[in-house]
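[Automated response] Your request has been received and processed.

Submitted sequence:
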Amino acid sequence: MKVGLGLAFINQSTGDVSSTTFAALCSAVVDALLGAAGLNHLRPEFGFLSPVDKIKQIELKLYYQGFSLVNMDCTIEGELNLKPGVVNDFARQIADLLFISPDHFTIKSYWFEKMTGPARIQVIASIKKSDEI
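Generated structure:
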């Protein structure tokens, strides 16, 4: 089994917070998966793609490299003023793109009154070679 970490930061003062959060979450997911698979050198290939296309491409790369996703754990730290249920919708969308059960893709959100600065997204991904038990 291999593990990777992805990070992203969100500045709430620019654009639509929901779409910015989704894009940042996708970027952190891609970074975590590339790191776990040891494929960080492929990161520049993903720069021009939309967030959804980045997820699709990394899923294909992992599949052809013989990896399967075991679990993803995401944490959002900071106040994002998202509508209720949006974070769960993000989790379902990304789980669908990765062909995994939503039970294997969790998102936790934390906000403390004294937190300042941009919101932070952290993703930890665990993958395995498809032939591993």
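Summary generated for your ticket: Residues 17-37 form the longest helix (21 residues). Strands lie at 2-10, 67-77, 105-110, 119-129.
If you did not submit this request, please reply to this message.
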